[in-house]
């Protein structure tokens, strides 16, 4: 394994590790044995990858699995369809690189996309890093129609925090998604319609701060895991924006390459992650390994709230008024307004 950029884990425990340097997907069993390789280095044909950065997995049924890859330096998204019933493998792709200002809406184009995810309904979310936007693709016939038939673009321009800046990692639920905005060292949460729920974090290495966050993963208990790449740690928040805990510290020792089992819990520029069944999988990119961490026990959430500059800050009335205005304009949910009021009342 060399320079793993992301990892996605299936229900059977298999880990699909995306290797940026080797431009391939390497599959590992639950026990950690290498089982299969998909993809080769290249820049033209289907299944050829060039510095791929992100991978997402969707198990459509007991036989069919969709693997979505941000084929970053080829400026496209590729999908690998695996059919267990007949050991079938089928690659499809969409997207191209358009130079200059001519970028018509009839074309699907990307500039170094670095993040992908698939929500439970099958929509594909792509962080188009070089174009400072997120694209959401919808299609009911992915296999028959490799090019998506419906697309929406979210760039943050209509939100209080303005345009997205170099979005990378992305994680999607049914009607919300979360973006690691590496260019601004923060996390932003959106509804699928493009309205912003909140932004979280600023540049730095303290609690509530980030340095080039590169990936996001969600668990089923309402936790958001963030690969804080430049700080070589994993930060954990609730999806409401409250700080929970963090894992890891920096260790980029060259000796780890010859003994990858040493210095567990320490990272060197982690770029990707996934979480499944109380287990966190981290693509420890600079150490050329994937770490597997048991996360059964969480501390109680702390009092970093959305919009606070310091830990244990207070919810201001102005924050509530601003969110009420967002709700009045159909850009926020009433439930979120009530949550903020409840936090304010409990101070």
Poorly predicted runs: none
Q: Report the sheet with the most strands, covering strand number, pairing sense and barrel closure.
A: 4 strands, antiparallel
Strand arrangement across the biggest beta sheet: 1-2-3-4
In CATH, the topology of the largest domain is named: Neuraminidase
Query: Which shape, going by the Cα principal axes?
Result: globular
Number of helices, counting only DSSP H or I runs of 4 residues or more: 2
Annotated CATH architecture of the largest domain: 6 Propeller
Strand content: 35-45%
Number of strands: 29
Count of distinct structural domains: 2
CATH class category of the largest domain: Mainly Beta
């Amino acid at each position: 394994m060399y320079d793993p950029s992301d990892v996605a884990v299936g229900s059977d425990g298999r880990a699909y590790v995306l290797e940026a340097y080797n431009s391939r997907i390497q599959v590992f069993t639950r026990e950690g044995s290498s089982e299969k390789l998909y993809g080769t280095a290249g820049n033209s044909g289907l299944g050829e990858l060039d510095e791929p950065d992100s991978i997402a997995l969707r198990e459509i049924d007991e036989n069919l699995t969709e693997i979505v890859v941000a084929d970053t330096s080829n400026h496209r998204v590729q999908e690998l369809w695996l059919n267990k019933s007949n050991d079938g493998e089928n690659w499809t792709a969409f997207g191209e690189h358009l130079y200059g200002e001519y970028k018509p809406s009839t074309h699907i184009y990307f500039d170094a996309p670095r993040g992908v995810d698939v929500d439970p309904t099958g929509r594909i979310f792509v962080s188009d890093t070089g174009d400072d936007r997120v694209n959401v693709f919808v299609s009911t016939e992915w296999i028959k129609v490799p090019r998506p038939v419906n697309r929406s673009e979210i760039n943050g321009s209509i939100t209080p925090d303005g345009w997205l800046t170099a979005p990378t990692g992305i994680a999607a639920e049914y009607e919300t998604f979360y973006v690691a905005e590496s260019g601004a060292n923060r996390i932003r949460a959106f509804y699928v319609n493009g309205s912003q729920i909140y932004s979280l974090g600023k540049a730095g290495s303290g609690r509530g701060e980030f340095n080039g966050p590169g990936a996001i993963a969600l668990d089923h208990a309402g936790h958001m895991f963030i690969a804080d790449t430049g700080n070589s740690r994993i930060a954990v928040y609730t999806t409401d924006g409250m700080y929970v805990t963090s894992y890891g510290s920096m260790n980029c020792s060259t000796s780890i390459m010859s003994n990858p089992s040493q210095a567990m819990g320490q990272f060197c520029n982690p770029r990707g992650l996934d979480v499944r069944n109380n287990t966190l999988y981290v693509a420890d990119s600079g150490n050329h390994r994937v770490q597997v961490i048991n996360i059964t026990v969480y501390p109680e959430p702390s009092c970093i709230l959305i919009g606070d500059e310091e830990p244990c800050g207070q919810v201001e009335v102005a924050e509530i008024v601003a969110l009420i205005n967002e709700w009045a304009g159909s850009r926020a949910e009433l439930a979120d307004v009530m949550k903020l009021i409840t936090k304010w009342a409990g101070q």
